[in-house]
Amino acid sequence: MMWKKEMESLSPGFAQPPEAKRVYLTFDDGPDARWTPRILDILAQANVRATFFVVGRFALQQAALARRVAANGHELGNHTWSHRHPWTALSSTARKEVHDGAAAIADLIGRAPRFFRPPHGRLRRSMIEEAERGGQTLTLWNRSAVDWGPLGSARGIARRLIAAQAGDIVLMHDGGRGINRPDELVKALPEFLSNLSRRGLVPSLFPDSVRYFQDKVCNMRSTDDECRGKPNKFFLRNLFDCRGKKSL
How far is CA 182 from the centre of its chain? Predict the structure, then answer.
């Protein structure tokens, strides 16, 4: 089947077996003047690097902090200009959100971002096309800390994070706006990082080749309804839906 051929053609540097023991930590919605520095300090103490999907206008407002993220060896990914929901904007506006978010990062650190994550993990063809035009790869997640809303307690976050396995992309939030709870995340994060170390799991940055689909990713056997709007079903995916047609 086509999806199996795709898997076979993936770069061995990224399509790693579980024994590779790598996990990919990501933080969304920052930078945040209060919580991003706390998380950076925790990561530094554990000698861990992660990918921060920043909102362009917040990054420009916190320019020194955004540059600190990059200077500490972390990756800056594009999380759009203003975190507007992908489904509530005109196509032209959605494209501009992606373009302006990437431009803000480039202005701050002198290079364009390599990865794009849409707000709320909601997919929109125009946004994906704009990201790919700018050389960015769509990057979602398959494990969430759920560090937001009524479920975002330190105890619950810790329970969800400890289940992380090799190959997982883990979603967390350093931005404290709205219902996000980085105040609870920072209570659970140090022990989570220690647990990863004890288990021999290595937090890593995304490599250049990212055509890696997990077993839960949409494939040729899935339906459109199974694919859309369920970011926990994704690892990374390209422009096409399960049947090879452009989606959304």
Answer: 16
Identify whether 41 is a catalytic site residue. no
Q: Which CATH architecture has domain 2-11+28-233?
A: Alpha-Beta Barrel (3.20)
The two tokens of residue 144 are: 């969430």
What contacts 5, CB < 8 A, 6 or more positions away?
none
Q: pLDDT per position in the chain (248 positions), as tens? A: 332 333 333 323 333 445 479 999 999 999 999 999 999 999 999 999 999 999 999 999 999 999 999 999 999 999 999 999 999 999 999 999 999 999 999 999 999 999 999 999 999 999 999 999 999 999 999 999 999 999 999 999 999 999 999 999 999 999 999 999 999 999 999 999 999 999 999 999 998 655 443 333 333 223 333 333 343 333 343 322 322 333 33
Among 147, 168, 173, 241, the active-site one is: 173
> CA-CA distance, 157 to 155, in Å (whole number)?
5
Name the active-site residue from 28, 32, 174, 241. Answer: 28
* DSSP state letters, 43-60: HHHTT---EEEE-HHHHH
Establish whether 28 is a catalytic residue. yes
Q: Taking the model in full, what pTM does it have?
A: 0.80
